Structure to design on (147 residues):
């Protein structure tokens, strides 16, 4: 009987330890889930702020950045379009200097996005046929060598 009660006591101790382990894992899982939820909310809020953030109340219809290039570590030359006029500005060292002013060129009609897409599609199809032809030609040569 003493051996049976010892075995029963050991079994109860093991089941208590397993219960504590399961309880600890459940708490750890809940904590991890809560942390993932908080991180998800933070990422969602940052995405929303980027899309509809402060200072994005309206589009800048009058001001458009046409081009920009760096001419030094902190200096840039920027072309800005303001109501049909291009301003060439030098930006650097906390200063903005107007370098030149000229009328904006008339917007050129694009050759057509369909023409560009067809050109790319045609080149892509040609490249795919070329690659397929090379692949099958090589595999036929290899299979001929094995025979």
């Amino acid at each position: 009987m003493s051996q049976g009660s010892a075995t029963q006591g050991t079994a109860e101790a093991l089941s208590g330890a397993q219960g504590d382990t399961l309880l600890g894992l459940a708490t750890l899982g809940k904590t991890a889930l809560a942390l993932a939820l908080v991180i998800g909310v933070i990422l969602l809020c940052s995405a929303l702020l980027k899309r509809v953030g402060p200072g994005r109340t309206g589009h800048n219809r009058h001001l458009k950045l046409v081009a920009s290039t760096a001419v030094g570590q902190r200096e840039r030359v920027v072309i800005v379009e303001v109501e049909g006029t291009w301003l060439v500005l030098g930006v650097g060292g906390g200063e903005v200097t107007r370098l030149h002013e000229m009328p904006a060129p008339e917007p050129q009609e694009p050759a057509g996005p369909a023409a560009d897409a067809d050109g790319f599609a045609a080149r892509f199809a040609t490249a795919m046929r070329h690659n397929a032809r090379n692949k099958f030609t090589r595999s036929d040569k290899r299979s001929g060598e094995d025979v």
The radius of gyration is 35 Å. The longest helix spans residues 2-51. Residues 58 and 82 are 16 Å apart (CA to CA).
